[in-house]
Fold each of these.
Amino acid sequence: QVKQKSLTADVVYKQATCNQAIVEEAKAFWKDPILKTTGLPRERIVVEALCGSLVVTWFILYPNRAMQQAAKQQIETQTVVNYFNMTFIEQRYGTAEASPIIDLSAETEQESIPSQGVANSVVVSRGETE
């Protein structure tokens, strides 16, 4: 459920040495600040990581679509690393490169419409319901 409708992004540390211990450490490093920043229950947040470069992928499921959209905009404005106060681990892993944030709830509801169309249809439907 969390992975299907959440906000998600990858954070890549290209300079990081990577092994299973570092993967587990990175997941733990990211989980707590996300919990603190969002205030969401633990079961609404999934953090995964893998090696190649160290890649941390997080999934955050907000209680409703409006909160999720607002959070996405806030995170994009501040950048993922700054929003979750994760600059400190760059000393350990090197500079982070974050992928664009994807709102999977928007993807599943409007699969065939390009992202601009999704934004427009959301605004239109909000206007009709108020």
Note: Residues 12 and 127 are 39 Å apart (CA to CA).
Amino acid sequence: KLTEEITELTKAVADLDAAMAEATTLRQEEKAKNEQTIKDAQEAQTAVAQALTVLKEFYAKAGDATAFVQQQPEMPEIFDSPYKGMQSENGGVVGMLEVIESDFARLEADTKAAEASAQKEYDTFMTDSKVD
């Protein structure tokens, strides 16, 4: 009977060691993926912010320019006022980029929260397994 208990406990310890090793491998893979996602989201936010700066500068300068400045005795009616684009139409490109920028910020925050939660679960599992 004692031999059976020893065999069962040895098997349980082996199973637990295997589960801990698998959990460690999965956690490392998940952590690497989360870190890459966070890095990508940060780079994307930077790129979108730069694009927004360029567009806002362009639209600010567009108000000063008149389209097709030509040497004519009199300019046609269409060129009387500067063309400022369709900036206000449903938010335009600038509005769309601002939404994209906030989406990347939310992705970064969500991924950081998921990473912290997964790390906590892993730590709890490892602590509980070592106690057993």
Note: The chain is about 75% helix and 0% strand.
Amino acid sequence: PPRARARTPAPRAAAMALRLAALRRFASKPVPLGASGGQAQAMKDSVNKLGESVKGFSFSAFFEEKHFWKAANVGPFFLLLFFTPTLYRGFKDAYWTRQLRKLNTEEIVSDRYEWLKLNMLKDEVEAELLKQVPAGSVKPLELGPALPP
């Protein structure tokens, strides 16, 4: 009898198993209903604290000279100020690249339709001229008499 081979899991199944293992590894520990978990509560508190700081932000207080130079965290402000031209240029380039790529596609399609229309007209003209050809074929065109007078 033929030997039974051990079946190896399909690559798709192995990938799914790894994904599930990673999900279980990084998932928080289960907390019974009604009880609050330490990490979950800390996360909720930090989100609430962030929301309160955003609600309580005042531009006039932040940019007041004494507070701005002594107490305020001005790093993000100066980073934004420094990188604004680069960010603006990047967004502008991305926008115009997208727009011109779309326009280029539209022009290519339009040119193909125009080429098709011209060739269809040319084919119709050739078909009509072929219908008018005499039975013996076309006579050669003479520009003048063969012998001088």
Note: DSSP finds five helices and no strands in the chain.
Amino acid sequence: RALAEAAALVAKAAVTAALVLLALRSAASARPADEAAPPAGVGLAFALGQLAFGVCFGVLLSALAARRAAASSLWPRRAHSGGGDGKGDGGGPRWLAGGEWGLVAQMCAQAVQKYGLTEGERLGLVATSP
């Protein structure tokens, strides 16, 4: 995974640098150099750099997963079949085993707590601002 992310970062840097230099070169020939505004293509260069990162990272991760024959484990599947514990459809296959629901509830509570701690100040300021 680290190799895929490193390659994706190099692709992002290369695409962004090339497009920024191209935008600067075309802007220098089209207008005087004393203007303070950045050239028009600079924002697009950063967006396309992010796109290059995402595509490269996704392709490399997919290739690594396929090579290791782990691609099938990335898809959700039923935890077990049978063994009714009185919940749901009467003992058929389930996405989670009976004891894992407590872990799911705990992780959801932690996610809500993290959101509150991360964004709480901003939410409070937005709610009380005039």
Note: The chain has a mean pLDDT of 79.
